[in-house]
Amino acid sequence: MKTAIATVSISGDLKEKLAAIAAAGFSGVEIFENDFLAFDGGPREVGQMVRDHGLEISLYQPFRDFEGMPEPQRSRTFDRAERKFDVMAELGTDLMLVCSNVSPISLGGIDRAAADFRELGERAARRGLKIGYEALAWGRHVSDHRDAWEVVRRADHPAVGVILDSFHTLARGIDPETIRSIPGDRIAFIQLADAPKIDMDLLYWSRHFRNMPGEGDLDVPAFMRAVMATGYQGVVSLEIFNDQFRGGSPKSIAVDGYRSLVNLMDGVRRREPSIAVDLPAMPDRIAAKGIEFVEFTANETEAGELGGLFAAMGFRKAGRHVSKDVSLWRQGEINLVVNTEREGFAHAAYLVHGTSVCDIGLKVEDATATLERARALKAEPFEQPVGPGELKIPAIRGVGAGIMHFLDDESELRNVWDIEFRVEESDDASETPAGEPADGPLPGAGLTRIDHIAQTMNYEEMLTWTLFYTAIFATRRTPMVDIVDPGGLIRSQAIETADGSLRITLNGAENRKTLAGHFIAESFGSSVQHLAFSTDDIFATAERLKAHGFAPLAITANYYDDLEARFGLDPDFADRLKAENILYDRDGDGGEYFQLYSPNYGEGFFFEIVERRGGYDGYGAANAQFRIAAQKRSLRPKGMPRG
Ligand SMILES: O=C(O)c1ccc(O)c(O)c1
Ligand SMILES: [Mg+2]
């Protein structure tokens, strides 16, 4: 499959754009005219530069305001086209995009436009070139791909085809199934873009808010299935006008683009099995079953403090690694690992981020298949030397700074805890805090599993993260919600499996004054900001935690007054929530959510304990503002210091 991306989609100057596009794995580029005009070098030089990167120029664009002009403008547009043909010849490309006319003086008329294209086709063919006609969603007379195709059909010239751009079709709500009646060999080129559903002017929406297929809300898969059903075998290209991308990292945006294309085409192939898609085989999106472990990196002193925190939440020390300075803490199905090694990835992470979460272990259907799909989607495999008695666990670099490991029940990996960890005589007894009976292990606090992991990133990187998770794993993303922090806005969105077995919340920080922004700044980009543990009985857990010496985050009395009024709560029930500092939420179907927080440790890391009742599927977004305000009051208590 030939893949391309328009230079306009990537930030940087033309050189930087090409380097990033080539490194990401594309086979070609669309040279966007303004990128060429801004370049200080002739068309031959640009063509050579593109080919030196191993790329081809798949398209030159756009040529504007061509068809249906009155004289004398009509003759001028043909002269202008000839000049562009000269440039194309020197660039070394044979296809030019002509977008539908937006000029108020254009006359309209399908046959007039067809006659103009027939003549342009004739002139192009004489020079061995071709042209493609694209309907802009805001074109003066042609704004629908069906009309563009009718013009092309009537032009009836082998050098003239139609160009379909998913944005223009889908943003106007045109049924993509209408593409299926166009002959595939009359489609000159395919441009793809997604976009979030926003109610705004089409032109503004198109020029500022497009994003990669899978990052927005348009049905790009339906569009692409229809295209492939026509027998189209040409280039599949991305054309993304996006303000954030223009300012983003060229390398990472280019990889996102390639990832989104491969993910899209793999999905098309699975839904249209009779259609040939020339793409290497890869496993389908991976069924993720949950979070098997979370690993912290720390120095010895801080590891002791972390252990104290874990013990206060009812965790017990359950083992020590056979060959490394790594200990395991357990409760229910939760595995927390603390790594104090002086070498390897965890130590490197410690030096950069301080005490923090450095690795996440996901339980998946098939760990090897997960690595294979991740690789096909340009994720970076991670390996470090396997020590004596250790298993080789498939792993990749996450989108942030951390490593993501994959475990399954199908292989030896299911025995990782028994193979790599040993229970030490002293483990249980030595962790018994003062004041508790020392004659046996402390009972836990009723924590059962990890409900969710919350990762924080700069707002501009959120699309990269959502694409990463949704392309590799069979997950969906929830709508974005705004969370008000006294210092600014946080955008929050969850990635989750349909059954809720894996939940990751992504929090995009716009500045450093927010708790989330402070956390990423102070931890130099550590991503995991909090872990949420599940309990089946939040009140019993709250009591147990108290007995363990856990001090929950204090919530204001005002919050509880409002809560009682808002939900019409029984006053005794509201008092109980208040006494335990438990936050509460209820959904439209009577599902209930209970949340209990730890204070901050260090610069904004914390734990949460939740109970879901009656199928509640959210994350208590309505409570986040009050929790954050409380946490900000408690910032920098005694606790987890930073490197
Ligand atoms: O916004 C535009 O003008 C524009 C130009 C060329 C395209 O291919 C397109 O989709 C939009
Ligand atoms: Mg386009």
TrEMBL record:
Biological processes annotated in GO: 3,4-dihydroxybenzoate biosynthetic process
GO molecular function, one term: 3-dehydroshikimate dehydratase activity
Catalytic activity: 3-dehydroshikimate = 3,4-dihydroxybenzoate + H2O
Annotated binding of a divalent metal cation, by residue: E134, D165, Q191, E239
Pathway given in the UniProt record: Aromatic compound metabolism; 3,4-dihydroxybenzoate biosynthesis
Region of interest: Disordered: 425-444
VOC domain sequence ranges: 290-409, 449-599
Keyword Metal-binding among UniProt keywords: yes
Binding site for Mg(2+): H452, H530, E608
EC number: 4.2.1.118
Keywords: Lyase, Metal-binding
Cofactor(s) it depends on: a divalent metal cation
Family per similarity comment: Belongs to the bacterial two-domain DSD family.
Function of the molecule: Catalyzes the conversion of 3-dehydroshikimate to protocatechuate (3,4-dihydroxybenzoate), a common intermediate of quinate and shikimate degradation pathways.
Protein name in UniProt: 3-dehydroshikimate dehydratase
